[in-house]
Specification:
This protein is of the alpha+beta class. Helices cover about 35% and strands about 15% of the residues. It has helices at about 40-50, 65-85, 90-105, 115-120, 190-210, 220-235, and strands at about 1-5, 10-15, 30, 55, 140, 155-160, 170-175, 180-185, 190.
Length: about 240
């Protein structure tokens, strides 16, 4: 992953790179550490074409490149998220994007207690979307491919981030473990909230039908049921979302 940090705004951008050649497509204005991917002939051609200023720091001299400090912070916070969430190691890219999104919307003393987002765009960010869910938390989304009759119209997925360029403010990034795909969806509810509503519905019907009976709800069985439904509708390798 290539990380770009604004020297004035401290706004962080991260872009995935599968190969060194992909670095050339994400140039804006660069201070790099002389990595081969960043000083190749292709990169030099793009810098000259668009008159982009580029400066190299000395190898092993991290203090000469301001982005190195931000990368240290990103790694530290990403480790925190990975530890408390229990997400698998394969989710590290999603964790890094999640951390960068929050860092860009967190006030910093170097910016006079303003956020990098506000410094870059001139607007105070809406942080309410960041208070709803935790990374890798099980949530429910609507299954738009449900065919009547169906036993469940919901899919159990994992919350992995924010979709600020897709949908409305209530649109988030979720990971479907059955298909291995990252989706942008409006979430229906937390899994815990769904379970509580299921328990209340069982209690309400039991009170109406027979005041002496109260069927206990096995929450783990509901999770297992939704997982089975999800895997049945989207088997491993399926391209459906």
């Amino acid at each position: 992953m290539q990380v770009f940090v604004g020297t004035d705004s401290h706004y962080i951008h991260g872009y995935e790179c599968r190969t060194d050649k992909e670095f050339a497509r994400m140039l804006e204005g660069i201070l790099n550490d002389m990595a081969k991917a960043e000083i190749s002939k292709k990169v030099e051609e793009i810098l000259r074409r668009y008159m982009i200023d580029a400066h190299q720091s000395e190898p092993y001299q991290q203090q000469q490149n301001p982005v190195e400090r931000s990368i240290q912070d990103i790694k530290r916070y990403a480790n925190y998220v990975a530890d408390y969430s229990g997400a698998p190691p394969e989710a590290w890219v999603l964790i890094v994007h999640y951390v960068m999104y929050i860092m860009n919307r967190t006030a910093r003393s170097v910016l006079n207690h303003r956020t990098p987002y506000e410094k870059l765009y001139g607007q105070t960010p809406d942080i309410s979307v960041m208070t709803q869910f935790q990374f890798w938390e099980p949530v429910l989304i609507h299954n738009h491919l449900t065919i009547f009759p169906s036993t469940s119209s919901k899919i159990l997925v994992r919350f992995v981030g924010f979709s600020d360029s897709v949908g409305n403010a209530g649109c988030y990034k979720v990971y479907n473990e059955a298909t291995g795909k990252t989706l942008s969806r409006a979430l229906l509810a937390l899994m815990n909230a769904y379970m509580k509503s299921m328990k209340w519905n069982h209690f309400h019907h039991a009170q109406v039908g027979s005041p002496m009976t109260f069927p206990l709800v096995n929450w783990s069985s509901h999770v297992e049921f939704l997982n089975k439904e999800n895997q049945a509708q989207f088997p491993l390798g399926s391209r459906k979302c």
